[in-house]
Specification:
Layout: E1 2-4, E2 12-20, H1 24-35, E3 40-43, H2 52-56, E4 60-62, E5 88-89, H3 94-97, H4 112-125, H5 135-139, E6 151-152, E7 155-158, H6 171-174, E8 179-183, E9 186-192, E10 199-205, E11 211-221, H7 227-234, E12 259-266, H8 270-276, E13 280-282, E14 285-289, E15 291-293, H9 295-301, E16 307-313, H10 322-333, H11 338-358, H12 361-368, E17 373-379, E18 389-396, E19 402-407, H13 412-432, E20 436-439, E21 493-495, H14 510-530
Parallel strand pairs: 1-8, 2-3, 2-11, 3-8, 4-19, 11-21
Antiparallel strand pairs: 5-7, 6-15, 7-14, 9-10, 10-11, 12-17, 12-20, 13-14, 15-16, 16-17, 18-19
Helix pairs in contact: 1-14, 4-14
Length: 546
């Protein structure tokens, strides 16, 4: 059932589980819980498409390193930011879950083996096979024979369905008799019980002043890496520092996948390298290899699990090509409505189709003519930094909630890790006779500061990946939730999404978001099965549904 709070609805609703946020995490949780026979209320602050009013709730203040405007850094409508997602899917590596002595604050309370079964299930949610072919064998001789203790060549797989989490592709939720989707429903506060050991109810507001109270047995916060800590911090009627914040951990350790130019390759096998690290079709899958620091290199030189790709790019001293500039303007300046997203997707499909015809010939030719560099496009792991954080500002949004303030900070190890990876690539390419690496000048500068390059990517600052702000940890003094995603000290409140990640790895977060969301939903379902309390499944009358 669907209720649009802008058009009215009941004053109160109850269900077994209430989920805040209809992005990839929230939708994955809902589907899992419904499959277990539970009733769910899914609350979405926006509607089914981009609207100026809900989008304005994202506004906030950047007080740290240069970042995207907060109102542009995420989408507030059903499906969330997956509406403009590039479809990259990759697992985190086993080392990402480990405590690394050279990486302060590293280590997850779970290991890769515990998540592996959920990765298999999550892949099916993106139209990918549960078990993947051996990509190394499939790509074969196309890949350089890098030394195992220097470099690895993992790969992205691509979900080629742009709108997988749209409302049009979520009729299973909207039509389900045990699921109520409420749009234009912004959770203003998660109201704790008097003892603060549990959540009593959700206080929900519409932009025109509508009020709704939602009661459930368990609650899942799945609103993203900025909104998750924002809502916890703003829920302070009972705990003045906010929910889950007894040790001042909520909002800390904000991480991105920062982008940069790592340098260029000169005098080498441009054609072979562009072919190797372009997109491939393997067993019906689209695959794109990349270059990362091998675990042995990370341990030996104290590096993060940073990655880079190879691509033809104009030199750092050049101006952007007119066609590329036009594409970026359309993508970034147009409102992300269904029409605007359709135009962007058509352009993206056209560009991808052209690339299949001309790549790697075009970048090879341009590089040979001296018009572009064979550039090292860095997509880095950022080390967890407790001073990189989301807090509350003084300004209020239209619902009366304090706006977010982002203080994004990188660390010296982030720069050192790029320099180490670039150095290893240089050694390996020279050993294999494939070229010479010229590192970017910023990697040798003091003090060590992260430096972005507007010509290196259509997203030059980072991947719009908001991670780490409600991190998992066994010790509540080191994180906000336990290894199941349950907020420390609050029995019936869980978090889903990349805000759970203690470290960020190189992999895009969406596959791991869905895998962890499935895992948390299973934990909730198991607890409810063991409980003797009756179901709270009580839906509003049909007359209220849209």
């Amino acid at each position: 059932m669907h209720i649009d709070l802008d058009r009215g609805g009941p004053d109160g609703m109850t269900a077994d589980v209430a989920v805040i946020g209809a992005g990839a995490a929230g939708i994955a949780v809902c589907r899992r819980l419904l499959a277990e026979g539970l009733s769910v209320i899914l609350l979405e602050s926006g509607g089914f498409d981009h609207e100026a009013g809900p989008a304005a709730l994202n506004r906030g203040e950047n007080i740290g390193e240069e970042y995207y405007r907060l109102e542009d850094s995420r989408l507030r409508f059903f499906g969330g930011t997956t509406a403009i997602w590039g479809g990259r899917c990759a697992e985190f590596d086993p080392i990402d879950f480990e405590r690394r002595p050279w990486v302060p604050h590293s280590g997850w309370p779970i290991d890769h083996a515990e998540v592996a079964p959920y990765y298999a299930e999550a892949r099916t949610a993106f139209g990918l096979p549960r078990s993947l072919p051996d990509l190394g064998d499939a790509l074969g001789a196309a890949m350089p024979a890098f030394a195992d203790d220097e470099l690895s060549t993992p790969a992205w797989l691509f979900d080629e369905r742009f709108d997988r989490f749209s409302h049009a592709n979520s009729r299973d939720l909207l039509d389900h008799p045990r699921c109520t989707v409420v749009t234009h429903a912004t959770v203003r506060e998660i109201l704790a019980t008097g003892s603060a050991r549990g959540v009593d109810r959700l206080v929900v507001r519409g932009l025109a002043g509508q009020r709704l109270t939602v009661t459930a047995r368990h609650y899942v916060l799945a609103a993203g890496g900025i909104e998750n800590p924002r809502l916890l911090l703003a829920s302070r009627s009972v705990m003045r520092s906010g929910l889950g914040n007894g040790h001042d951990q909520v909002g800390r350790y904000f991480m991105e996948h920062p982008h940069a130019r790592g340098g260029r390759i000169v005098g080498g096998a441009t054609w072979a390298l562009l072919r190797a690290f372009g997109r491939h079709r393997v067993g019906g899958l689209t695959v794109a290899p990349l270059i990362a620091a091998a675990p042995a290199l990370q341990a030996r030189e104290g590096l993060l699990n940073t990655s880079l790709t190879l691509a033809g790019r104009r030199s750092a001293e050049s101006r952007q090509a007119l066609l590329v500039a036009a594409y970026e303007r359309i993508k970034h300046d147009a409102a992300p409505t269904a029409r605007g997203r359709h135009v962007w997707k058509m352009m993206k499909r056209t560009v991808n189709a052209l690339q299949k015809v001309v790549d790697p010939a075009r970048p090879w030719a341009l590089e040979k003519l001296g018009m572009t560099d064979l550039a090292l496009v860095v997509r880095a792991e950022q080390a967890p930094n407790p001073d990189s954080r989301v807090t509350l500002g003084d300004a209020l949004d239209a619902t009366g909630m304090p706006r977010a303030r982002l203080d994004w900070r990188t660390s010296a190890i982030d720069v050192d890790s790029v320099r180490g990876l670039v150095g290893a690539l240089g050694r390996e390419l020279e050993r294999l006779g494939l070229g010479k690496v010229e590192p970017a000048p910023w990697l040798a500068e003091q003090p060590r500061r992260w430096t972005t390059d507007p010509l290196i990517s259509t997203h030059p600052i980072g991947g719009y990946h908001h991670m780490g702000t409600t991190r998992m940890a066994d010790d509540p003094r080191q994180g906000v939730t336990d290894g199941q995603g349950r907020v420390h000290g609050i029995d019936n409140l869980y978090v889903a999404g990349s805000s759970l990640f203690p470290t960020s790895g190189w992999a895009n977060p969406t596959l791991t978001i869905v895998a962890l969301a499935m895992r948390t939903a299973d934990r909730i379902a198991a607890r409810l099965r063991m409980s003797s309390a009756p179901s709270l499944h009580r839906l509003p009358p049909r007359s209220a549904a849209g």
